[in-house]
Each structure stands twice: as structure tokens, then as C-alpha cells.
Amino acid sequence: MSVPLAPPFTYRTIDTGTVRINCAVGGEGPPLLLLHGYPQTHLIWHEVAPRLAADHTVVLTDLRGYGDSDKPAPGPDDAEYAKRAMAADQLAVMAALGFDRFAVAGHDRGGRVGHRLALDAPDAVSALAVLDIVPTRYTFQHADKDFGLGYYHWFFLAAGNGIPERLIGGDPEFWITARMNARHHGGTAFAPEAVAEYVRCFADPAAIAASCADYRAAAGIDLVHDDADVAAGRRVRAPLLALWGRHSFVGRTYDVLAAWREYADDVSGAALPADHYLPEEAPRLVADALREFLRVR
Q1: pLDDT tens digit sequence for 11-53
Q2: Which terminus of the chain is less hemmed in, N or C, by CB atoms within 10 Å?
Q3: Closest CA to 90 of 66, 54, 55
């Protein structure tokens, strides 16, 4: 691979009025926004995006707090990293690029941002794909010992008093590589150049603080927003594709389609032979699944 992405992708920084978002754009056709997860950047899609660029105008961004996007300091309630704020960034990016309606595919944290975007801007999102997640609210409602052990980082990163920030900051490269290697099962190996970029970006103390705020928001303000949606009967109206790793915690633990059908009207999906990092472990299968899902829309 190349770092950054090679042509047809070109890079730009878009000022949303709140933060500056780093993004790459390439290809031709209907617009598709790709969102990454933790602890990566847009480069998690480095094998998928070129495959999709033949049929779509592909936009890859670094979420606020990650990669080379801005990293505002977290406030007392971490609202700066609420998925509502992060989704608003992405809506502004697509508007700046001239797209008022587009498809979204998000892995991990990016899937949660995509979920919020589909709820907050339903007229903008034509289709939504979520990779290796179930809804945040569903996850917390079904948390048990296995979740606490398998997804301990949800609670560790959400801890206060600067504890995770200090501990991760002591050796960010170890934290990233240990987390990633523990959740990989065969398939394509991680590209060393991509991992080096993840480490470069995450070594910034502001990125570590932002990512912890992201997880604190998930356990706090995001649940407030999610509860309000459920109470109001708001659901994802756009067609939703769920892909998950057959060997991942999500795949081993949940009935993924049933979980999403509690929150969305039109749900389809399948397991892929991978663990958590589907775009890197099974890029061809991910690209094929996304292309087929979007083709029929």
C-alpha cells in the first residue's frame, strides 16, 4: 500500500466551522462515505476504497479526535465527542463536497457515528452499512461478565481522572498493536505502513485524550440521545447492512441481525471469515458485500 492513499485519491482538509476534518476523495459515481474505528484512521479502508472507487465517489475521513483531523479538548460531559457531534462533522464534510445525499459505511466507532448520522439526518443517508458492531444502547443493556472481559477497553477508556490517558501514553505503540493483534483471525495481515500511521497519529496525547472522551461519551451522553430516540420512536429508515466477523466477539456473542432490527426497519447482513477488523482482514469480501448492497439500492 501507499501512505497516503495513491491516486485516484486526493487529500484535502475541510473546515466544518467547528473542526477541520482530514479526508481523501477518489473515484466516480454515487457518493459513499467510509468511516473508520478505534484505534485506526481512514487507512483501515486502504484495500477496500480502491475497489469501490470504480463505481462510487469514495470519501474517507479521519473522525474528529483521530488521525490528522482536529482534536478539540474534551469538556466536562464529553459532548465534543458525542456521536451527534461527530456525525454532524461528517454531514458538513459531505455538504462541502457537494453531496446532500450519500451512503455511509462505518467500522467500529465509525459505525456508531454512521448510526447516529442516519438518525439525525435521515434525508441525507441513502443506505447504511455497519461493520462488526451492534447498537451502543443494546450493548450496554446486554453487558455481562463475558462482555466485561472481552470488551474491557470500553470501561477502561471511559474511566476518569486521567487514568487511561496516562497509562496508554506511556507506550501507545504497545497499546495499539496489542489491541489489534488480539482481534485478528487469519485472512490478510495488517499492512505495516498502515499500522505505523495508526501509531504516529495515536501517539499524540490529544488523540489519546480524544479517544477516551469518545468512549466516555458512549457510556454517557450518547445513551441519553439513544434513549430519547427510542422514546420518540425514531429508527433508522435507510436500508442497513450489518457485516460482522465470524470469529469476533460480536459474532460469537450476539444475534447481530436481531439486535439491529430493534433499531432499524430494513436490515440484512452476514458474517465474514474474520475477527474484528473486517476492512483489513477481508477487504475483498467487504468490498464485494458493499458493492452488492449499494447496487440494489
Answers
A1: 999 999 999 999 999 999 999 999 999 999 999 999 999 999 9
A2: C
A3: 66
Residue 4 lies in a domain: no
pTM for the full predicted model: 0.97
- Which CA distances in Å does 262 have to 40, 87, 124, 244, 267? 29, 21, 22, 17, 10
Distance in angstroms (rounded) separating the CA atoms of residues 177 and 198: 9
Q: Quote the number of domains for the chain.
A: 1
What is the C-alpha separation between 15 and 93, in angstroms, rounded?
A: 8
Q: Please give the grid coordinates belonging to residue 76.
A: 466536562
Is there a contact between 152 and 159 (Cβ–Cβ < 8 Å)?
Answer: no
Q: Domain range for residue 193?
A: 10-295
CATH number at residue 215: 3.40.50.1820
- Taking the chain, what is the end-to-end CA distance rounded to the nearest angstrom? 31
Handedness of CA 112, 117, 122, 123 (dihedral sign): negative
Q: Which three cell numbers stand for residue 142?
A: 446486554
Q: What cell numbers appear for 155 in the block? A: 470501561
229-266 pLDDT, tens digit each: 999 999 999 999 999 999 999 999 999 999 999 999 99
Find out whether 104 and 33 touch, Cβ atoms under 8 Å: yes
Do residues 127 and 265 touch, judged by C-beta distance below 8 A?
no
Q: Is omega for the bond preceding 135 within 30 degrees of 0, making it cis? A: no
What span, in angstroms and rounded, lies between the C-alpha atoms of 237 and 214? Answer: 25
